[in-house]
């Protein structure tokens, strides 16, 4: 059992021309508590058209879990596609400043279709970053999440 804090909350943040965006305060507080190095790991979500972000502590825990699954599969004579499982570990580190600002790595930003706005979603051990228009148009069946995104967009007068 880990003593890490979990990520909770939602926010729509603007993204500047250089790809800079600020991690919302509630997510940043959790990130700081879990990893005081002021770094966030950013990867393509393994199944959704968004980014997944986490701290170094979660990366270590996830790595240990994958190693354990590989050992269990090998001992049972089962096939374990380790390369597929480790795709979620293909992350880039980004350092953020005291205000939580960081540059979304270009490859990840392009793959998630993030342009002028980024919708942040606390998701327990990780948080997600969505292009809001991609989220509301996706076949992702989380209608609550889509409704929240629409709400935050309307509050900032952002057309989706």
UniProtKB/TrEMBL annotation:
<protein>
    <submittedName>
        <fullName>MraZ protein</fullName>
    </submittedName>
</protein>
<dbReference type="GO" id="GO:0003700">
    <property type="term" value="F:DNA-binding transcription factor activity"/>
</dbReference>
<dbReference type="InterPro" id="IPR037914">
    <property type="entry name" value="SpoVT-AbrB_sf"/>
</dbReference>
<dbReference type="InterPro" id="IPR007159">
    <property type="entry name" value="SpoVT-AbrB_dom"/>
</dbReference>
<dbReference type="InterPro" id="IPR035642">
    <property type="entry name" value="MraZ_N"/>
</dbReference>
<feature type="domain" description="SpoVT-AbrB">
    <location>
        <begin position="10"/>
        <end position="58"/>
    </location>
</feature>
<dbReference type="GO" id="GO:2000143">
    <property type="term" value="P:negative regulation of DNA-templated transcription initiation"/>
</dbReference>
<keyword id="KW-0238">DNA-binding</keyword>
<dbReference type="InterPro" id="IPR038619">
    <property type="entry name" value="MraZ_sf"/>
</dbReference>
<dbReference type="GO" id="GO:0000976">
    <property type="term" value="F:transcription cis-regulatory region binding"/>
</dbReference>
<dbReference type="InterPro" id="IPR035644">
    <property type="entry name" value="MraZ_C"/>
</dbReference>
<dbReference type="InterPro" id="IPR003444">
    <property type="entry name" value="MraZ"/>
</dbReference>
